[in-house]
Each structure stands twice: as C-alpha cells, then as structure tokens.
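Here is the promised in-class demo. Please do not try to memorize the tokens; focus on the logic of going from shape to residues.
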C-alpha cells in the first residue's frame, strides 16, 4: 500500500487519442465504466480502476513510426515532450470538513517492449503543465494521485487519477497495471478547502442529477442533507385589490424565491 498526501496534486487534461493522433474529450457518461466502488462510508471510499483493454495504434509523424496506447472511453496524459499514455480519472464526493489521504494498491505489474518509440506530446502550449519523469526514468512518476478538494454548491469533491500504463525511458519498456485500487480515507489533519455550512435545503433537482452523473458516488453528496424538509418556509395569504397587485409584485416574488408559499386573494371591495 502506498499513501499520498492531499498536498501532492496535479492538473490533467482528460483527453483521448482517436484515429491517427487526433485528440478529443473523453465521454462523461462512462463514469462507472472501468471503475467500480468497492466500499463507501463516512470514513472512506475505495475504488477499483480496471484497465485491461488497452488498444495500441501506430502513428506516423514525418515518416517516423510511433506507438500510442489508449484505454477505450478514458483520457490520456498530455504533457509536452512526454509520452501520451492512458489516464483514468473519476470525481469522488468526500466529507465536507475532513482531512484526506489517498491509499493505493498498485496491483500486479506487467512489463513489455515495443519496437517503435512512444508517441510524444509536442504541444507547445502546455509548458506550464510540464513534469519530469521519476528519478528512475519512469513516466508518469506516480501510478495514482488525488487532486485538492473543490467545492460546488456545498458539495466537496476530489479527482482521483490513475495511470495504468507507464513508460520506462531507461529500459525502454512499458509497465502495465491492469487493476489499481485507490482508497480516499479521512484523517485528523486540517482539512483543505472545507465546507463551512454543509447542510443545504431546497437543492435544485437538476443540480442533483448533474452531481450524480459527475461523481462516481454522487448520490452521497446529499446524504447529510436534512431529512424530509418542509416544502415551504411559511405561507402567506395576500388579500389585495386588483389595481394594487403591480405595486406588490416585487415583494411577492421576493418572498416566493426565499421559500414561502404565496397565495393571492383578489379583493373586490370598494370604498365610498
């Protein structure tokens, strides 16, 4: 088992090789494809990342042949002067105010050689993302990592990224790990980017759908919400003359948006 601090994070483009070296975004509707939840509770969430369907492509650039690999439906690394290799990322909902650590079981490693050199990213616009290979010449330098937490409307998430295929520059060979298990555990460390008020009422149904589609355990984002909230904060019955409604409309709409049920009774009373 290997442990990684929450402080070791990186930025990764979720890209996929398609055809002869073109790049396109990985589909977002495949969150459970290649990744399964082993267990999930308030103290930890464990995932199994499976990448056993690697596809190899031969790419020609200026008459030179290169080997490229992808895992169908997943992204790739994309760092200048480094091999373009599969990367499997998923968002995970985590507790609102806990320290976090990533514990990784890399599983069995398989080694193999290819005749051609690996396809290299030559995009000059990603200089800021540049990372070196590990001292032992292996890229990516890690086979799993966790981003810092981000918060979206009261939901705290981290992105777990695994690299099932690494390249060894020294021995000119690939290292394939078809199954990597990664567990996000809560710790007593000071939390990074905690949520101050995690309990929310009247969440948008559309937001719930988006979160459940975005995170592999998205339904847990609403686990701590108050149970069976009242449909309204209160109830107003506004008895008002027809000609006065335009003057009260802004107040009525304001109360409605703040969670109050507003009923209007138009009065036909006259004066005089």
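The designed amino acids, position by position:
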């Amino acid at each position: 088992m290997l442990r990684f601090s929450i402080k070791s994070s990186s930025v990764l483009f979720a890209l996929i090789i398609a055809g002869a070296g073109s790049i396109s975004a990985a589909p977002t509707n495949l969150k459970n494809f290649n990744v399964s939840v082993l267990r999930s509770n308030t103290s930890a969430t464990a995932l199994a990342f499976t990448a056993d369907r690697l596809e190899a492509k031969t790419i020609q650039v200026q008459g030179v042949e290169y080997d490229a690999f992808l895992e169908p439906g997943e992204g790739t690394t994309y760092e200048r002067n480094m091999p373009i290799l599969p990367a499997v990322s998923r968002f995970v909902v985590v507790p609102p105010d806990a320290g976090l650590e990533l514990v990784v079981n890399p599983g069995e490693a398989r080694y193999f050689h290819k005749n051609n050199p690996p396809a290299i990213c030559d995009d000059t616009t990603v200089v800021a993302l540049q990372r070196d290979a590990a001292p032992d010449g292996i890229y990516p330098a890690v086979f799993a990592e966790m981003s810092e937490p981000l918060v979206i409307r009261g939901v705290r998430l981290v992105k777990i990224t695994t690299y099932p295929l690494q390249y060894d520059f020294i021995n000119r060979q690939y290292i394939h790990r078809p199954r990597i298990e990664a567990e996000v555990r809560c710790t007593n460390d000071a939390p990074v980017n905690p949520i101050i008020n995690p309990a929310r009422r009247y969440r948008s149904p559309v937001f719930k759908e988006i979160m459940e589609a975005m995170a592999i355990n998205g339904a847990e984002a609403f686990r701590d919400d108050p149970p069976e909230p009242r449909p309204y904060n209160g109830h107003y019955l506004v008895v008002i003359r027809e000609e006065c409604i335009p003057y009260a409309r802004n107040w009525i709409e304001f109360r409605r948006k703040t969670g109050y049920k507003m009923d209007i009774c138009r009065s036909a009373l006259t004066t005089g």
